[in-house]
Amino acid sequence: MFHWLEQRPFLFSVGVFLVIAFAGLIEIVPDFAQASRPIEGLKPKTVLEIAGREVYIKDSCNACHSQLIRPFKSETDRYGPYSKSGEYAYDRPFLWGSKRTGPDLHRVGEYRTTDWHENHMWEPTSVVPGSIMPAYKHMFRQNADIETAYAECYTDKVVFNVPYDKPGYPKLGTLAEAKKQALEEAKKIAADMKNQDVKDAVARGEIPEIVALIAYLNSLH
Amino acid sequence: MQNAALEYDYTVSKWFAYLAIIFGIVGMTIGVWIAFELAFPELNNLFGQYGTFSRLRPIHTNVVAFGFTLSGIWAGFYYIAQRTLKVSLSENGVVSALAKLHFWLYLILAALLVVSELLGYTTSKEYAEMEWPLDLLTVVVWVIFGMAMFGLIGMRREKTLYISMWYFIAFFLGVAMLYIFNNLEVPTRLVAGVGSWMKSVSLYAGTNDALVQWWYGHNAVAFVFTVPIIALIYYFLPKESGQPVFSYKLSLLSFWGLMFVYLWAGGHHLIYSTVPDWMQTMGSVFSVVLILPSWGSAINMLLTMKGEWNQLKESPLIKFMVLASTFYMLSTLEGPIQSIKSVNALAHFTDWIPGHVHDGTLGWVAFMIIAATLHMAPRFYKREIYSKKLMEMQFWIQTTGIVLYFSSMWIAGITQGMMWRAVDQYGNLAYSFIDTVTVLHPYYTIRAIGGVLFVIGLFMWAYNFVKTMSNSKVLEKEPAFASPMGA
User: Fold this and answer.
1) Which of B44, B46, B362, B365 is the most exposed place for a label (fewest CB within 10 A)?
2) First to last CA, chain B
3) What is the mean pLDDT of chain B?
């Protein structure tokens, strides 16, 4: 029946490709213009917050935590208002996750404090008895990569038109300016923390990963 | 010369078979380790930041999916392609060199993947975690594989492509398309001139990124775990049993059906997310439709055994393959059930999902690869398979492992989903999140034990394979079908 096609590998391959590609075209393309529109009041993250987001990605926090609240009462009661498409307009990559071994974090900035995160990352069971989360003590020792975070924000601005440096939006400026600003933000967070090594590091002008990560988590609303 | 039997060149096929064994053991041992970490969290911090569940989990999935599975597939490919196209790799120096280059570059890539992910270089996109320099190398490896494949096809003496070759072609094209579009990213160092060379930013943002990722993620399952594994079973089951494929028409229907339907189903990963409702519904509906082509190939395989079911009793190799087909049917029924909106609301984000993944990957993919390598071994080395008894034991131990795995995860997932939504008499949430974590401890333990059983089976497989190479009874000539086995 189809033998003629199975004797012509080139035509066969073209046929297979078209049949495979069809669905992707129909499903993906129509939503592109719509889904990239930011919700009103949405601002891109600061360099420090992006540095924290990079820490979040580096340690694959997304393997266990989602950032997507589904429109069910049980979820909105637990985590806050359900997620809308426009809230993610600046998220590259998206971090919805696919498994909740731990709770959702999309609005974690609303109900957890710097202090809580600090304890939780140092020794999870100290704030959540029974937690199976690993301790992330190395985040207190290693410094966040502010330069890479700056490069990410800069790329977002130049390549994707993310509104940095526009009136009412976060300032990016030059690398030196961005570093200075990140340190200012880091100082505010370190003031709420207890770990003396972290406080000392920030006083020296360094930014430990934990500080950046908490800045990011606090920015999740 | 025209009628002389061809001397097939198994070199590359053998290399990939060794790699499949090594990656299988490594990847699944990591899997067992992280399974224990969930049950006994203090294990997480034994190796500092390099031993946490979060760092190791992507390494586990990558080593198993792209290390073990792809190696097994390519071991089968370089064997099947020569035989069904009636060519030998050694006939053409260029194609033969491409095949070898394919192997070595792939091995380098795999090593770089493990190291880079251990160090925390990841894009965070599931099953596409590699950062951009490795993505580029992946494309190179893939193109070389494609050149080797189409080179062999170009040389063929058999005019018509056998069913397995259809699936290998689809595997090549499908993965190429999905991989490239999902991994389009902008390296930040090249734009900004500062920071890490390894960092990149996805070309897509938010909901769009999720759409492209799950279009890829779901279909990576299609074109790595389904399509090429079907290619293997379409060759090895008829060959081992000495029976012709049950129906050519059914294989046509299920092939083209699978090609057309599979990619629509990716939307089922995004049900109740922020993607448009129509897309979620399409994902849901097409996932259910997907039962047809999936069961089409599975039934075609099972009916190939028609009148020959006694072989199931006699040959552990047939056992592996028939159970693989059965697990494929189970998994492709379970997936659509999870895609129904109301079920998805309960199952999504829970342990039922890894449960589903593993009955497919352990029962279907791994069993098929194990069977394929052990079918090839007597032809590689002109020796009997070292021990039939060992294989028989391996089969039962691993089957027990799989059953423990998926049944514990079904219970865990449904329990979790029910507890998340449970409310008390006043309509308040009945449980805090941590309640739903601690209740899972026994199931996590059972899952880890299931994993241990499966890995024990892998060691038996490795032992049997190595012994076949060196210690087994020599064969006079290559067996036509039914692999000869020692005691």
Assistant:
1) B46
2) 38
3) 94
Confidence grade of residue B221 (pLDDT, cut at 50, 70, 90)? confident
Report residue A37 as tokens: 């529109």
Report ipTM (2 d.p.): 0.94
| Residue A46: DSSP 8-state | P
Return the DSSP state at B106. H
Nearest to B368 by CA among B73, B80, B77, B25: B73
Tokens standing for A12? 């066969």
- Degrees to nearest 5, angle at CA B253 with B247 and B257: 150
Among the partner residues B45, B261, B279, nearest to A27 by beta-carbon distance: B279
Residue with the larger pLDDT of the pair A3 and B138: B138
Helix (H) or strand (E) holding B352: helix B352-358
Q: How far apart are CA A209 and CA A198, in angstroms?
A: 10
pTM value > 0.90? yes
Do the chains contact at B202 and A93, CB–CB below 8 Å? yes
**C-alpha to C-alpha distance for B182 and B392, rounded to whole angstroms:** 42
pLDDT band at A30 (very low <50, low <70, confident <90, very high): confident
Which candidate in B37, B86, B224, B274 is best for mutational testing of the A interface (most A CBs within 10 A)? B274
Chain A's closest residue to B151, CA to CA, is: A9
Q: A-chain residues within 8 Å CB-CB of B121?
A: 58
Contact B191, A154 (CB under 8 A): yes
Q: Is A177 on the interface with B (CB under 8 A)?
A: no
**Is the predicted pLDDT of residue B1 greater than 50, yes or no?**
no
Say if the Cβ atoms of B264 and A23 lie within 8 Å: yes
Rounded distance between C-alpha atoms, residue B280 and residue B274, angstroms: 10
Alpha carbon distance B25, A89 (integer Å): 41
Chain B residue numbers touching A61 (CB-CB < 8 A): 54
